[in-house]
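Dear colleague,

Following up on Tuesday's group meeting, I ran the structure prediction for the two-component complex that the binding team flagged. I've pasted the input sequences exactly as they went in, so you can double-check that nothing got truncated or mislabelled along the way. The structure tokens for the whole assembly follow below. Feel free to forward this to whoever is handling the docking comparison.

Inputs:
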Amino acid sequence: EIVLTQSPGTLSLSPGERATLSCRASQSFSSSYLAWYQQKPGQAPRLLIYGASSRATGIPDRFSGSGSGTDFTLTISRLEPEDFAVYYCQQYGSSPYTFGQGTKLEIK
Amino acid sequence: EVQLVESGGGLVQPGGSLRLSCAASGFTFSYYSMNWVRQAPGKGLEWVSYIGTSSDNIYYADSVKGRFTVSRDNAKNSLYLQVNNLRDEDTAVYYCARATGSGRLPFDIWGQGTMVTVSS
């Protein structure tokens, strides 16, 4: 099983700032199978990034993903008020399709 | 409108069973692999199960293997999760989620979830 560890657990930033979220895997896997999701309270998750760096349909270009092997990053270039949420990384290349434990992005 | 709607959740005693359903609309259901993902109260996401387009490939998380059974009926545009021998730790919101196609793909459409509470 591939274990994904996200850091930090909580990130406190202000609107307009840059956010960098990390996802580290217990073993290397193809970046083709790494996704990022956003979840707001009381809502289902929303797909942001797939294949480590491709934005899903309708996702603003302030969201970008990068990385390979065991280290992946989600960057939000300039935070908007609606970006404060919980973010999860996920690998879907091999069963079980594991999620990271999440990073909560909160307003400072 | 592309939509997934779950149903079948509720309060059940430990050791009990439920059948969760997910009704799909707005897309050709048979073309897409499907998944179940759950989220315990205040916790993160946990992938539960995957089923391929023709039920050819099925996978489960170790935590539910032998107790949960995923199935689909492409003629009825529906996904199911039979959950047996429920434990306290199975208490969660259960989401169905569509993969972006057939195979190992990310989850682009999610339902609103159905709550399963296991308690005596």
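The interface with chain B takes residues 1, 33, 35, 37, 39, 44-47, 50-51, 56-57, 86, 88, 90, 92-102 of chain A (CB under 8 Å).

Cheers,
M.
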